[in-house]
Amino acid sequence: MSTHPCPIEELLWNNGLRRTKDRQFMIAKLRLNRTWTLTQMDNVLPQTSQTTVYRNLKKFLDLDLIEEAFVHNHETHFEWMDREHHDHVICKKCSIAECIPCPSPDLNKHRIELEHICLLCNND
Ligand SMILES: [Zn+2]
Ligand SMILES: [Zn+2]
Ligand SMILES: [Zn+2]
What we know:
Layout: H1 7-14, H2 21-30, H3 38-43, H4 50-62, E1 66-72, E2 75-80, E3 87-91, E4 97-100, E5 113-116, H5 119-122
Parallel strand pairs: 3-5
Antiparallel strand pairs: 1-2, 3-4
One zinc ion binds next to loops.
């Protein structure tokens, strides 16, 4: 078994970014199987100003750590860059988008965004 240093720490270090708690937190979130809008990320970082959250997202974008997955209801959804092709299903109520395996692997280059009502919203 090879020992692996924390990949997130290594990433920030390799990119010359100071390892702030916010950045580590944001990266951990961005690596989940879903996308994040600026608003959604700001909501899970109540102590941090939206400007700081935005600046960090912008840095990650510039460094190609994240990419713009799609725009939904005028909001850009970001997600971790280093992933195989897949598509998304978006909740019409809360706008949380989950990554799903590609439903049409035979199609040429594409991005599919399906809409649904997620389990949490369905329980309301
Ligand atoms: Zn929902
Ligand atoms: Zn995704
Ligand atoms: Zn696909």
